[in-house]
User: Fold this.
Amino acid sequence: MEADLSEAMSDAARRGGREREQLVRELRAALRGSEQRFEAIVGSLTDPVTIRDREHRFLYANRAALAYLGFESWEALRETPPAAIMDDYIVQGEDGRELAMDDIPSVRILRGEHAEPLLIRTVRRDTGVQRWNLLKAAPLRAEDGAVEATIMIIEDVTERRRTELRSAYLAQASAALASSLDYEQTLRNVAELAVPDIADWCAVDLADADGDRQTVAVAHVDPERLSLAEALRSYLPDRLDPDRGLGLVLRTGEALRYPEITDEMLLQSAIDERHLDLLRALGFRSVLIVPMRIGDRTLGAMTLVSAEAGCTLDELDLELAEQIAARAAVAIENSRLYSERSSIARTLQQSLLPDRLPEIPDYELASVYLPAIQTSMVGGDFYDVWPVGESWMMVIGDVTGKGIEAASLTALVRHTVRTASEFEQSPARLLAFVDKTLRSRPTLSVCTALCLRLQDDRATLAVGGHPLPLYMTEHGGVVELGGHGPLLGAFDDVRWQDFTVRLDAGSTLLAYTDGFTDARDEHGDRFGLPRLCATLGELGAQPAGALAVSLARKLEEFQAGAHADDTAALVLRRLTGGDNPVQSSPSQATIAAPA
Amino acid sequence: MVRPTRFEITEQARGETLVLSITGELDLSTVPQLARRVEEKLAGKLTTLTLDLAELTFMDSSGLRLLIELDRRARQESWTLTLIPSKHESANTVLRLTGANTALPFEASAP
Assistant:
């Protein structure tokens, strides 16, 4: 019988959970039997088991409990007041709230309350060892049913709990790291997530190519001490001693763990008195410094600190911190690449458009350029205006495709047209020349373009896969000019055609890219050619600059959110004889059938 | 909020030919979906791919670029690309504007 029960209990202890409750019930039965038999059973359990009387004094503790509570013998435990034992620990609930004796399940049972199992985190004040325990208690009743004592099983769930916290932190931190391209904000979020589950405070430093560091995030479990932590951080010089601490980690890219920080160590590392005061005021028990590394490059480091009352940071914490730091490094790298790309994009974009438009006698010239929403993308739209002898050349186009490749293609097209215009007068032949250049490239390089040569009041134009320009009379009538020609760089055996028109005084020519007509509103409707013609007609004859601004505004009003695609336009207006801007009443637009 | 661009690809095998029918709008936001789908299909053994654009209601220059790329690949890799023109003028505009209506392998009545 005894052997059976003992086996059952060992088995139950192995399985945990519901079986343990069964165990408690059986223990109570066993208590009523001989003490010897009880000791034989419970004494061998690996989980600490204690029995306490109504005054909370220990009546019994098995070997595991003695070891767990740090006592050599049962006598030593019996002579120590329970409150003194509790004082040796920081005891916190799952939420980090400090717990008192009254919260312990066995004490609640003595008060006549029902006590659910309680998950607690304990940190031994002297050693800093952290444990997670599940406390389960049950009453032991006398014959009359009165509670005589309580029995409590302390289940060590440290590994399970830390694994849970670890994966929760990893998941949250990874989500935070992926959430934004603003890496400084992201690093602040990651630092904040690290406290209090991993450390009491956390700092993130970035290093530049010269090895200078800069603190970008500091988080502290105690808001009152956050300012101390920040002060400490700003006290550090930008250039650190490369042979110790953070400086060493930044130099070597290897993590450092200081399981136990002593006051001597603080003394050694302090730069001066003020620094030492700060170090002492913050309190250090244990420190981890992990590099944020991409390949051989160390971008910075994360410092995790458990304060004087906190737990020792162990290998498991180090491993977790290294994982987070590695992910943070990727986030930083992505974000930096992105901002570099944005600035390259902006620079390229600017270089692809003329600094300013030339002044053409008897004409007014204005432009619109609305870049696409994604700032890292170099837009494919371009335009250019330049003089050739007595005439003026205008080109507007759209390189399909985006990014650096599109930018280099844009530059190629612009320079090809410019150069070719020195020896080629016909816009159609210029387009053919560009087409040939594009087709000689190894990868698909296509582009739309409208090329126009202006001489006095004559405009000769050719169109390659591009929307036809709109011509508005002084009175607001709108027609398309010219005729469609094939896309450049795309097809075999194709040709382009020149169209020559006369630009009357007071008339306006609008050359635009498909960003205008393809723009969508919130319902998904496109701006479209008819609406563009109508809008132009309604705006009517007015100075080129004012018209360009009004057109851009109309498009932005129509468009939901930002521009999906680049949009560019050139507005060319032929001044009237008196050289005064003409204000004419807007009239209904007319749309010519496409040629 | 902005209404997402309407876009759907349905797939059908007609003998040796795989037909991808595209409904909705082919623009900057939907081109990657079609490109990905075609890429998947080309990874398998495929001799003829037909893109049925009959129910395509809009196409922009990025959609056109994809068609031109596919046409080039088909010729280089020796498979056949056939395009069925859209019934909607708004989808054919960019094709006519760029000369792609005659240069690309449209079936029967080109737009």
Observations:
- Helices of chain B lie at 31-43, 61-77, 89-98, 100-103.
- The first strand of chain B starts at residue 7 and ends at 14.
- DSSP finds four helices and five strands in chain B.
- The first helix of chain B runs from residue 31 to 43.
